Amino acid sequence: MPDPTSDSELLAAAQVALNVHGGVLRELGRLFGDHGHQLYLVGGSVRDALLGRLGTDLDFTTDARPDQMLPFLRGWGDALWDTGIDFGTLGVAKGGDRLEITTFRADSYDQVSRHPEVRYGDNLADDLVRRDFTVNAMAVRITPGGPTEFLDPLDGLAALRDQVLDTPSEPEVSFGDDPLRMLRAARFVSQLGFAVAPRVRRALQEMAPQLSRITAERVAAELDKLLLGADPVAGLNLMVETGLGDVVLPEIGAMRMAIDEHHQHKDVYQHSLTVLRQAMDLEGPEGPDLVLRWAALLHDIGKPATRRHEPDGGVSFHHHEVVGAKMTRKRMRELKYSKQMISDVSQLVYLHLRFHGYGDGRWTDSAVRRYVTDAGPLLGQLHKLVRADCTTRNKRRAARLQASYDDLERRIEELAAKEDLARVRPDIDGNEIMRILDIPPGPQVGQAWNHLKELRLDRGPLEYDEAVAELLKWWNEKGRPNV
After folding, report:
1. Is residue 322 within 8 Å of residue 350, measured between CB atoms?
2. Residue 292's CB: how many other CB atoms inside 10 A?
3. pLDDT of 37
4. Number of domains in the chain
5. 95 found inside a domain
6. CA distance 168 to 159
7. Where a domain ends, among 103, 134, 162?
8. What is the 3-state secondary structure (H, E, C) of 309-324?
9. Are residues 112 and 193 in the same domain?
10. pLDDT tens, residue by residue, 2-21
11. Which pLDDT does position 148 carry in this prediction?
């Protein structure tokens, strides 16, 4: 994003952004005013308005208690949800906007868990000082006439102008209250392109172990947001340099100890960050691809465990893709990712090296079919990952690798034009297998199906009579049970 140059330019950008939502802001200001309550736009909504990137999710704070808001919001909004009511938050949908309105808070923390003792506050100042960073501690007063007053008691505008993340109170207090804020710092570095203040960096280094207080699900959510940011490499570097990564993603920092086999990068860690950047460059108009970004980051995490110093002075990492896929599954399970997410990312890690056996294009059609079948719906992402993994500075070698992959994609297209590569199945289905062999449902049907699928991968589509003959041959030689 462009660097903001002055406070006046930032405030002008905010006015333009808020005007887009002028209708709903005036209505909501009138609604709260008619019921005798204050209302303020706060947090990330004010920050993003100043940066000219305000979306349709708007955050507000008010002196009204949830039970006071419920009656008049229920009649005004298109939809209302109260899943956060225990924390003083009500959600409202109105037109195309999604609003979250929270009662002033003056919570206290026990410095052991991240769960506060929820206490409602009675003024805006106390609410703002309990927020994570000063750039998120600004407010705009909303009245029946719309936005009227910009409030910045903690100099958030100056921090925004200088692109610095600092805490409203001492960072040790802020992070002790909620250690997740440390990971949010890395996430905002990725999303906003900001740097952390020196005292914040020192606190991150000293307090990183306290991240262990945070649930895996919360950590994973922050890591996803970090990876989907505009500059995830900056966020990852902050994590690794401060020790946050040692707590939540130790495999990443561990890659700094391994030298990649091409000797063209300082270490595997830097190589992996380059692959991540290059994978992002290959993303299409549909936007960021979280699976691809995770796979790009993790594709070489198996290298430290498989590093071998060879007699000729070289370094090898045999089967690092197999080890890396296992490590990926283990880490992502610990972070409580979905089975589908774990399967997709680990499969890409497992397959990312297979192309390097393609050589000068001597793969058989069977090998091409297996490549496509093993990738399945991930084939497009595998194409991008493999291309992104080419980070050599040798221009001739890079051109040769890209040309070789161009050739593989061409062969895939040619085979796909002749047969259904996207869904390779046996030429005879399970019901027909049972009819031909006169057997009931059971393991033997699956064994026969797998045998025919292997034939299909090796030889391509078979005529029906040929497939039946192969099935009977297998049955007579191996499939029929001993009597």
Report:
1. yes
2. 25
3. 96
4. 4
5. yes
6. 11
7. 162
8. ECCCCCEECCCHHHHH
9. no
10. 455 688 999 999 999 999 99
11. 86
Same domain (yes/no): 197, 110: no
Residues 358 and 304 in one domain: yes
* Cβ–Cβ under 8 Å, residues 372 and 379: yes
Crossing angle for the helix pair 365-375 and 379-388, to the nearest 10 degrees: 100
Domain of residue 346 covers 257-422
| Burial class of 49 by CB neighbour count within 10 A (0 to 12, 13 to 18, 19+) | buried
DSSP H helices, 138-281, are 156-162, 171-177, 180-192, 198-207, 216-227, 232-242, 244-248, 250-254, 268-281
CA 284 to chain centre: 16
Tell me: do 323 and 471 sit in the same domain: no
For residue 241, being part of any structural domain is answered with: yes
Task: Give the whole-angstrom CA distance, residue 85 versus residue 330.
Answer: 36
**pLDDT at residue 386, rounded to an integer:** 94
Residue 299's CATH number: 1.10.3210
455 and 373 in one domain? no
Please tell me the pTM assigned to this model: 0.84
Indicate whether 98 belongs to any domain.
yes
* pLDDT, tens digit (0-9, with 9 covering 90-100), for 135-155: 999 999 999 988 889 999 999
Which CATH number fits the domain that encloses residue 22?
3.30.460.10
Q: What span, in angstroms and rounded, lies between the C-alpha atoms of 230 and 213?
A: 28
Provide the residue count of the chain: 483
- Whether 48 and 14 have beta carbons less than 8 Å apart is answered as no
| Full DSSP string of 275-286 | HHHHHHHT--TT
Query: Do both 178 and 287 map to the same domain?
Result: no
